[in-house]
C-alpha cells in the first residue's frame, strides 16, 4: 500500500503556494519600505506672511513624518498580520518611533499655537487628534478596518489640516493661530526632551547585538519628527535664529539630517559591551549625532532665556 506524498496533494500544494506568497510579500515589503523618507520642507520664511500659512506650516510639521508612513507603499506596518512586524523590525521600529514622538508633539503644539491664552479652550479638532486619534495603539489591526490604527491616525492628521485651513477663514469655529516667545521656548523644549529620550534609549545597558537595529531605528523615528518640527518652527518664527543663532540652528538641523539618512546595510554595536572592538559601533554613532543636535537646541533655549 502506498501513501501520497504530502506535497503532491491538493492541500500540500495550497500550503506551498501560501508559503511562497507570504515569502514574496515579506520580501517586497523589505525592498520597497524605507526608513529614510524625505523630511518636511517648509516654505521660505519670506513667503510666510500670514497666520493661516504659519498654521499650515506648523500643522504639516507636526504630522509630516506620520503621514509619510501612513501613505507609504505598504502603509502602517506594526499592525500588519502574519508576523510581518517580527521579521521586518527596522521599518516597524522606525514607525513606532514616529508615533511615539508625534503624540507629545500634537499635545504641545496644540497648546502653544492654537489659542490666545492658557485659559482658552483648545480647538476641538486638535483635542480629538491628540487625545483620541494619536493615542490609539500602534498595533491594532481593527475589525473589518473599523477602528484600526491607520484609520485613527489618518483622522488625526486630517484634523490638524482642517484646523490649519480654517484659521482666519471667517467660518464658524474658525481656528486660531497665536504664538508668543514662551510658546516658541516650549516647542524647543519638546524637541530637546525628545532627543534626550532617544539618547537615553540608545545608551541603555546590555543592548544585545541582534537588537541594536531596533534601538537605532526607533531613535531615527523620534528624531525625524523633531527635525520636521524644528524646521517648521524656524520657518514661522524668526526669533529662533535671531536669538538662538544661525550657527546653532544649522548645526542642529545638519545633525538631524545625518540621523535621517543613517541607514547602514547591517547594524552592529561595536562587537562588545564597551564598543572598542574592530567592528563599528552604529548605536554610538547615531547617538553622537543626536547628542550634538540636543546640545545645540539647548544652546538656543538658553539664549532665548536671556
UniProtKB/TrEMBL annotation:
Entry keyword set: Membrane, Transmembrane, Transmembrane helix
Superkingdom of the source species: Bacteria
Keyword Transmembrane helix applies: yes
Membrane-spanning residues: 12-32
Name recorded for this polypeptide: Uncharacterized protein
Organism per entry: Succinivibrio dextrinosolvens DSM 3072
Amino acid at each position: 500500500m502506498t501513501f501520497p506524498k504530502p506535497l503532491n496533494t491538493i492541500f500540500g500544494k495550497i500550503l506551498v503556494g501560501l508559503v511562497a506568497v507570504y515569502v514574496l510579500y515579506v520580501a517586497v515589503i523589505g525592498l520597497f519600505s524605507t526608513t529614510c523618507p524625505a523630511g518636511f520642507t517648509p516654505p521660505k520664511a519670506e513667503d510666510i506672511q500670514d497666520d493661516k500659512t504659519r498654521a499650515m506650516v506648523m500643522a504639516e510639521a507636526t504630522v509630516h513624518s506620520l503621514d509619510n508612513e501612513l501613505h507609504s507603499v505598504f502603509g502602517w506596518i506594526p499592525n500588519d498580520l502574519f508576523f510581518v512586524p517580527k521579521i521586518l523590525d527596522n521599518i516597524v521600529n522606525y514607525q513606532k518611533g514616529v508615533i511615539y514622538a508625534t503624540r507629545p508633539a500634537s499635545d504641545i503644539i496644540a497648546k502653544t499655537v492654537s489659542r490666545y491664552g492658557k485659559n482658552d479652550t483648545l480647538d476641538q479638532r486638535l483635542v480629538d487628534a491628540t487625545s483620541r486619534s494619536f493615542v490609539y495603539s500602534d498595533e491594532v489591526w481593527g475589525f473589518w478596518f473599523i477602528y484600526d490604527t491607520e484609520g485613527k491616525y489618518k483622522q488625526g492628521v486630517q484634523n490638524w489640516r482642517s484646523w490649519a485651513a480654517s484659521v482666519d477663514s471667517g467660518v464658524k469655529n474658525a481656528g486660531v493661530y497665536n504664538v508668543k516667545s514662551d510658546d516658541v521656548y516650549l516647542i524647543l523644549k519638546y524637541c530637546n526632551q525628545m532627543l534626550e529620550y532617544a539618547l537615553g534609549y540608545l545608551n541603555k545597558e546590555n543592548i544585545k547585538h541582534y537588537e541594536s537595529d531596533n534601538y537605532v531605528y526607533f531613535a531615527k523615528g523620534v528624531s525625524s519628527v523633531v527635525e520636521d518640527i524644528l524646521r517648521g518652527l524656524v520657518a514661522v518664527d524668526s526669533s529662533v535664529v535671531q536669538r538662538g543663532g544661525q550657527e546653532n540652528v544649522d548645526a542642529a538641523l545638519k545633525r538631524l539630517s545625518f540621523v535621517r539618512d543613517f541607514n547602514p546595510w547591517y547594524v552592529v554595536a561595536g562587537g562588545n559591551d564597551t564598543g572598542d572592538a574592530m567592528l563599528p559601533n552604529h548605536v554610538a554613532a547615531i547617538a553622537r549625532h543626536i547628542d550634538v543636535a540636543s546640545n545645540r537646541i539647548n544652546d538656543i533655549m538658553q539664549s532665548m532665556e536671556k
